[in-house]
Specification:
Distance between the termini: 29 Å
Structural class: alpha+beta
Number of strands: 10
DNA sequence: AAATGAACCTGTTTGC
DNA sequence: TGCAAACAGGTTCATT
């Protein structure tokens, strides 16, 4: 479900609802999601929540005890903040009561989501994070870096852009949307892209992600914000999910191809 | 090393 | 209408 803009939207919602709150009872309705749930979840009673951070597509809920809840939404994970007496949601796997009468509910139909409890800064050393490239808005993610990475790869640019060891947060939707804005076909070999076009691509990635964050992310079928509202960026898709519809710039029909098992969308006239 | 494909799991859409 | 196949926003692992 979520790429960087959706996770950032959830982070903002969680920060608003959780910051300063104290945890009450924690219930787990199953023992495993993608990985086994940490046994210590039940021991968080009376611990206060300090802040909510995002790194790549991970949410980091910092606790006053020094521990950090590291959470990934997978494809279909959702957080809802509801009154504690609300009935259990379908596919709700974890409910963390707060001492203000509300509860943080985690639901995830496909159960690709995962959560772990780590101490202090140890999460930075964890294998989930040690393999990650820079954030797309980090100064480290500049033209020299992206061009150098492209030069040594024969892989198509679209799957490369989705590789989190290069840059984090760009998933299947925003990879297609960025390439459209940069005028680059998704199947172009990375090492065949000139430096000026790499610069266009970098700008396009940052532009698309910022606009999507502003819109509260993209809701296709099931992404929702913490308050249950959808994100509105799907209205602004120029190619994703628009196979057979006319390109907004030239009228040519948008095409759909499969790359590395994922759908890519592009305009054959505007993208070369 | 780099690239590709399968696996994890359920729900929804598509096609016969 | 019914049923099976295809497909869905992510990540990791095994195999070329």
């Amino acid at each position: 479900m979520p790429e960087l803009p959706e996770v950032e939207t959830v982070r903002r919602g969680l920060a608003a609802h959780l910051t300063g709150q104290v945890i009450g009872r924690v219930q787990c309705f199953r023992s495993t999601l993608r990985y086994p749930l940490p046994a210590a979840l039940g021991e968080l009673q009376d611990v206060a929540i300090e802040s909510v951070e995002r790194r790549a597509k991970y949410l980091l809920i910092h606790l006053q005890s020094g521990a950090v809840l590291v959470w990934h939404l997978g494809m279909t994970g959702q957080f809802h903040v509801l009154p504690s007496d609300a009935p259990r949601l379908t596919h709700e796997h974890i409910r963390m009561d707060l001492q203000n009468g509300q509860s943080l509910c985690f639901r995830d139909a496909r159960r690709f989501g995962y959560v772990d409890l780590m101490e202090g800064d140890s999460w930075r050393q964890h294998r989930w994070f040690s393999v990650l490239g820079p954030e797309p808005f980090d100064a480290q993610f500049d033209v020299a870096y992206l061009y150098a990475a492209c030069r040594q790869r024969k892989i198509a640019i679209k799957p490369l852009l989705m590789n989190a060891s290069l840059v984090v947060g760009v998933g299947n939707i925003y990879a297609s949307e960025s390439l459209y804005r940069a005028g680059i076909r998704p199947q172009t070999r990375a090492d065949a892209i000139s430096r000026p076009r790499v610069k266009k691509l970098l700008d396009a990635v940052q532009e698309v992600l910022s606009e999507a964050i502003e819109a509260g992310g993209s809701s296709i079928s099931d992404f929702v914000q913490v308050d249950g509202k959808p994100g509105y960026f799907a209205h602004n898709f120029r190619v994703y999910g628009r196979e057979g519809l006319p390109c907004g710039q030239c009228g040519e029909l948008i095409r759909k191809i499969t790359q590395s098992g994922r759908s890519s969308f592009y305009c054959g006239r505007c993208q070369k």
